[in-house]
Amino acid sequence: MAQVNLPLGKALELFYQIGNVPDPTNPLDAVNLETLNNAIAATILGIPFVFGDGVNAITATGLVISIPIPFACTITAVTVLGVASGSTVIDIQKCTYAQFDGGSTHPVSGDSICAAAKPTISSGTKYTDSTLTGWTTSVSAGDILALNINSISGFLALTLELTVVRS
After folding, report:
1. What are the b/e assignments for 141-150, b being 16+ CB within 10 Å?
2. Is the overall model pTM greater than 0.90, yes or no?
3. Among 4, 20, 99, 122, whose Cα sits 20 to 30 Å from the Cα of 89?
4. Would you call the peptide bond into 107 cis, given omega within 30 degrees of 0 as the criterion?
5. What share of the chain is helix, strand, coil (3-state, %, to 5)?
6. CA 51 to CA 165: how far, in whole Å?
């Protein structure tokens, strides 16, 4: 059976529709409500980084895109998908909003969260890793995540998606 994460209001609405309304004064129902609330709070999300126009070859290296993350989370996997076959090595860097200055001093290579396990595609179209050996996987609300392309050839567009669990 597939698990579906619903906002608490929608979940309670469904309880009402099926006639199984939790009673917060009943200890068993209160536990179920707490479990439901915790499951909703720990929602699995994807954070996509998309670059390239799908027509022209990506040739730019260095810092290519930065995204502020508005919630605390833990990174559980990374997936990279390319349009056309190619090769790339991508570094993911993290800094605080206060530190961010577009790459002059942050984010830079010392801010890497990937250690030696940078997402890498060699003459292919895809990459995935859920082990994340050596990675810094914790992200605080307000952190900036940035992609730094170490090397690239052949791709017309790339999507890197971080799978995260909200804290």
Report:
1. eebbbbbbbe
2. no
3. 99
4. yes
5. 15, 45, 40
6. 24
